[in-house]
Design brief:
The chain contains 10 helices and 2 strands; from the N terminus they run αααααααααββα. It is mainly alpha-helical. It folds into 2 domains: about 50 residues, Homeodomain-like (Arc Repressor Mutant, subunit A, Orthogonal Bundle); about 160 residues, Orthogonal Bundle (Tetracycline Repressor, domain 2), CATH 1.10.357. A two-stranded antiparallel ribbon has the order 1-2. Strand 1 and strand 2 form a beta hairpin. About 10% of the residues have low confidence.
C-alpha cells in the first residue's frame, strides 16, 4: 500500500503538478482512504521522500556498528555511499524526484532538513571518535559537512545526467577529496589509474609521499599562522 501511494502521488505530480495535487486525489487514485495515507506519511511532502527515514536508520546503524579500528573519515564516507545506493536502486524515481524538487520551493526546504539530519548523524559519530582532542567537535562538524557537500555535488551531477553516468564512480571521486584532505590512511588508487588521493597535497601529486614534515609551533599561536608555516614548509605561497 505504501508503494501504491507513492506511485499514485508521482503519477499525479507529473500529470497535474505538485501544488495542484491533493491528498484526496492521491488516495482516490490509489484506491485507499485518507486514514491509510496518513498511516504511512505525515504530510504530502513526506510522500516525495519515502525512503529517507529507512536510509537514515541504516546509516545510523552502520556507524554505530563501526569497529574501533576503523579510520573515521573513511567510515563516514562509506556511510554516505549508503545514501547513494538508495538513489541508484531506482534511477527513474530519483530523477523524477530531483526534477520535482527543483520546481517546488517547499520541497527544496524539506530536502534541506533531510540533508541536515544526515549531516548530524555523521557529525555525532565523528564527535565520539574525536572526543577529547583539541578542536575535536569542530573537526567532526567540518568533516561531516564536507562529506555531505561532496556527496551531494556528485549526486546532483548524476541526477542531471538523467541517471546515465556512473553514480558510484562520480561519488567515489568526490569523496576522495574528503579522504585525502582529512583522512589518516591511504584511500587507494582510483579505478581509472589516477594518483592515489592520499598521495596528493592541495590536489597535486606528491613526489615522495613517505616524506614527513615536522612543524613546531607555540600552543597559543593562531591557526592561520600555523597554516601559513605549513604552507611555507611545503614551499607553497
Amino acid at each position: 500500500m505504501r508503494d501504491a501511494l507513492v506511485a499514485a502521488a508521482f503519477r499525479l505530480f507529473l500529470e497535474r503538478g505538485y501544488e495542484q495535487t491533493t491528498v484526496d486525489d492521491i488516495v482516490a487514485l490509489a484506491g485507499v482512504g485518507r486514514r491509510s495515507f496518513f498511516r504511512y506519511f505525515p504530510s504530502k511532502e513526506d510522500v516525495v521522500f519515502p525512503d529517507h527515514e529507512g536510509c537514515l536508520a541504516d546509516m545510523t546503524g552502520f556507524l554505530a556498528a563501526s569497529p574501533p579500528e576503523c579510520e573515521p573519515v573513511r567510515r563516514v564516507c562509506d556511510a554516505a555511499r549508503l545514501v547513494l545506493r538508495m538513489y541508484a536502486e531506482n534511477p527513474t524515481f530519483s530523477v523524477q524526484r530531483y526534477r520535482l524538487t527543483k520546481q517546488v520551493p517547499g520541497l527544496r526546504a524539506y530536502e534541506l532538513s533531510v540533508v541536515w539530519r544526515y549531516e548530524r548523524a555523521l557529525a555525532e559519530y565523528l564527535r565520539g571518535r574525536y572526543g577529547g582532542r583539541p578542536d575535536g567537535t569542530l573537526r567532526a562538524d567540518v568533516i561531516a559537512a564536507a562529506v555531505v557537500a561532496a556527496h551531494n555535488n556528485a549526486l546532483r551531477s548524476w541526477l542531471r545526467s538523467d541517471g546515465a553516468d556512473d553514480a558510484a564512480a562520480t561519488v567515489d571521486h568526490a569523496l576522495g577529496y574528503v579522504q585525502s584532505t582529512f583522512g589518516t590512511t591511504a584511500a587507494g588508487p582510483a579505478p581509472d589509474g589516477s594518483p592515489d588521493p592520499a598521495a596528493t597535497l592541495f590536489g597535486r601529486p606528491v613526489e615522495h609521499p613517505d616524506d614527513v614534515v615536522v612543524l613546531v609551533s607555540r600552543r597559543d599561536a593562531p591557526l592561520w599562522r600555523v597554516v601559513q608555516e605549513i604552507e611555507t614548509a611545503f614551499g607553497r605561497a
